Amino acid sequence: MTTVVTPGSTGAYVKLAKLDIVDYYLGVLVVWALLAPASRLDPGVLATLGVFLVGEVFVIVAMVALDDLTGYRDGSDAANYAPDAPARKLNRKPLVAGTLTEPQVLRFALVTAAVGAAVWLGALAVAPHRPLWAVALVAVTYFFALQYSWGVKLSYRGFQEFFLAALGWALVLAPYGLATGDLDGVVVVQALLFGLGPLLFGVYSNTNDVEGDRRVGRPTVAALTTPRGNRLFVRAVSVCEFLLVLALPLVGGPWWFPLALLPTVVLRLRQLRVGFGRGDILRARRIGIDVHRVTVVTLVVVNLVVR
């Protein structure tokens, strides 16, 4: 049954915020599990991670609201969520569905962006450590999150795929730095793994949206290449993920880490088969979301055991 969303209602703003897509927010769980046991219940560390997560939610909500506004204005969302695309839920795009207006969306984005900035400043204020690289990473992440589809429009200049991964990397590395003041190889490799998760369902969305993106000049890999070239790119990113799994024991992780991540590898192969073997791109995207969440659970469990 399709839920009816009243124009201008709280439900319309919830749809705009995409709060059901929690995948970037899960990075804080990975960070917490990576901490030394004595730090996991430290009040200052917990406060830092909690405040950072709240700010992260507001920043990402602002980012996706601005993305929807740009997609509505250039017509790509109308094309990608057209009536002949029944697998896409139209009410997830309130502007296209007519449940919010452009001024309402812009105000919402500006307010959530301002709140996100204030909350992240609060996280910096309460953090036990403030290494320059972590503070700079927070600032850079904030700036470029809002420029994803607005301002300089990174996703319209050929940086979309890199950004999807880099955002995930930053949302692990920055809070870990604020909590500990340090980094090691295990943290870096797990951050890289975490960031590839959102990318490896984002590229399937791009594959589905290729015609709409081409129409408005949004240069995703899928839009710039042939179907074969796009398929090779997705396979290459999937191989990179597998190589990172193999690399973790080399940087100080347990020797059995690749065995623990075997479900991730198997599900990733299934995603490729469903998406490019059977041609069911949106189902493959859904599998990608599941793969990312399975990976996060595995990372958390492994870290709690060995850190």
| Main structural class | mainly alpha
* Helix-strand topology string: HHHHHHHHHHHHHHH
Largest sheet: none
The name of the CATH topology is: Farnesyl Diphosphate Synthase
Walk me through the structure.
- The protein is mostly helical and 307 residues long.
- Helices cover 72% and strands 0% of the residues.
- The chain has a single domain (24-306), classed as Farnesyl Diphosphate Synthase.
- It has helices at 10-17, 27-34, 43-74, 76-80, 94-97, 102-126, 132-146, 160-180, 185-208, 210-216, 221-224, 227-247, 257-260, 262-277, 281-306.
- The protein starts with 9 loop residues before the first helix and ends with a helix.
- The model has no long low-confidence stretch (mean pLDDT 92).
